[in-house]
Amino acid sequence: MLSESESSLTTTLKQWYLLAKLDREANHMYPGGGNNRDAYWRTLCANSIFVWNNNAIDEVLSRTTGRIKMNKTFHYLRVLPEQYSDFLSCYMAIIGDPYCGILPNSFLHEEYDPLGNFDNADKGKGQSLNVRIGAMDQTIRSAVSMRRISILRDGYMGLGPTSMWPGDLVYVLMGGAVPFVLRPTGVQYSGRSGFTQSHKLIGDCYVHGVMDGQATDDNWKNKLCRILLE
Fold first, then answer.
1. Which of 45, 60, 176, 206 has the most CB within a 10 Å radius?
2. How far is CA 174 from the centre of its chain?
């Protein structure tokens, strides 16, 4: 039997899947490149993977016990396409039966490996299946905790604060490291450059396809505007 929090996560991910129209538009082109299926799974893990930093393990030899004390640190790395199998294993475990109508065959593709096997630069370093699945599970739960999925008008997917609602806007602010959710207040202020719309800051967000500086590309320059934050 699922705990209340686990049941809530299961329900949430099922609703998000349908909201993102993955039941019928999984293979449609995503505005940031690739298709909607790829954008969805990368959004749910914020396009990153939780990794123990084994290279930074601080080994201290205890003089009294003669044992090695290991102080592990962790960090996040960009997910590889091959890690889709690990994501899918975690996702199916959370939502239950993948063929219950929530995950049609269109969500799967020819690269899916139910055992989660993949080759990458760390091949041969001995990361077990349990370690990899555990890392992906930790990543998903951390990324979606206290967040809501958002589908922007132009088709971009993202994760934002639970306090955001329809009608809020996503801006990439000059000097900001991440996009932000802003809410128009309905108040305008007059200045030398004309009227400026006032906005309330709701919080930061993840938007797949604009996290690596794409919003500063030339094709985004026509969307530059001046806003006022209260």
1. 45
2. 22
- Look at residues 95, 120, 145 and tell me which one is the last residue of a structural domain: 145
Q: How far apart are CA 141 and CA 144, in angstroms?
A: 6
C-alpha count within 13 angstroms, C-beta hemisphere, residue 108:
12
pLDDT digits (tens, 9 = 90+) for 54-110: 543 333 333 334 444 444 566 778 888 888 888 888 888 888 755 444 455 455 544
Whole-model pTM over 0.85: no
Question: Which residue pairs, CB below 8 angstroms and at least 24 apart, start in 112-117?
Answer: 112/84, 112/85, 112/88, 113/85, 114/85, 114/89, 115/85, 116/85, 116/86, 116/89, 117/85
How many Å apart are CA 176 and CA 204, to the nearest integer?
Answer: 10
Q: Which residue range forms the structural domain that includes residue 81?
A: 4-145
